[in-house]
Structure formats: structure tokens, C-alpha cells
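About this split. The held-out portion is used to measure sequence recovery: a designer receives only the C-alpha cells and must propose an amino acid at every position. Recovery is the fraction of positions where the proposal matches the reference. Here is one held-out target exactly as it appears in the evaluation file.
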């Protein structure tokens, strides 16, 4: 199974979990010149820009650690594009949905964690 296929399954899994918890899926794979946002959801009074990361069990780092400052900046820039095209009266938030998959299986979730407010973008000089 390719990385792209695994990513698509991880995003579908994350979207399903979030929708079951009451979030409204606004967009999936939102592309801009800066990059892509995996999921955009409305969660009560917030609009959450969600990065989905999946890794096999036994990986050296947790999936969320792959969302480095460079990736955070690209997501923030893409979020600005989304909000300019789709103005909403909601508080923006940046979340990470991490999935740990079982080793040796195509796509089998061992565990997952939804990290709300995983990072802040206020420290960036300019987005």
C-alpha cells in the first residue's frame, strides 16, 4: 500500500471519528499554493484545521511530532486562504489527529489521539 493510499485511509478514519463526535466536516484535502489542509471541521464555535498523521507502531517519533514548524506555517498560510474564500464567524484552531497503525497490516488502527490546539501560530512574524 502506498503512502498516499495510507494517508487517504487515515484521513477517512479521522473524518469519521470527528463526525461521530459531532464535528461538521467543511472540507477535505483543501489545496492552496502553500500546501494542503487534510481536514477542516466546525467544532462548536471553532473552525479547526486538522493535520492527520499516521505512523506504524514502533516508529521512533509520535505522528504529531512530524508536524514541524515549517509544516505548521504552511497549514497556517493555507488556513488564511480558506478563511478569505470562506469567511466564518468562528475561532480558528490548529489540531493534529495522530494515528498509530499496527505493524505489518495494510491499514489497521492500533490507537489514535486527537490533539486540540496542537500548536499556535501567533509567534510567526507574518503569515
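Reference sequence for scoring:
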Amino acid at each position: 500500500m502506498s503512502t498516499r493510499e495510507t494517508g487517504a485511509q487515515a484521513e477517512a478514519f479521522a473524518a469519521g471519528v470527528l463526525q461521530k463526535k459531532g464535528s461538521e466536516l467543511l472540507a477535505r484535502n483543501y489545496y492552496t499554493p502553500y500546501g494542503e489542509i487534510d481536514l477542516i471541521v466546525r467544532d462548536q464555535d471553532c473552525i479547526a484545521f486538522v493535520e492527520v498523521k499516521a505512523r506504524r507502531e514502533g516508529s521512533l517519533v509520535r505522528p504529531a511530532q512530524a508536524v514541524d514548524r515549517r509544516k505548521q506555517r504552511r497549514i497556517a498560510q493555507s488556513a488564511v486562504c480558506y478563511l478569505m474564500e470562506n469567511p466564518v464567524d468562528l475561532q480558528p484552531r490548529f489540531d493534529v489527529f495522530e494515528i498509530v497503525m499496527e505493524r505489518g497490516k495494510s491499514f489497521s488502527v492500533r490507537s489514535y489521539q486527537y490533539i486540540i490546539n496542537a500548536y499556535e501560530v501567533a509567534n510567526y512574524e507574518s503569515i
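Annotator remark: The first helix runs from residue 3 to 20.
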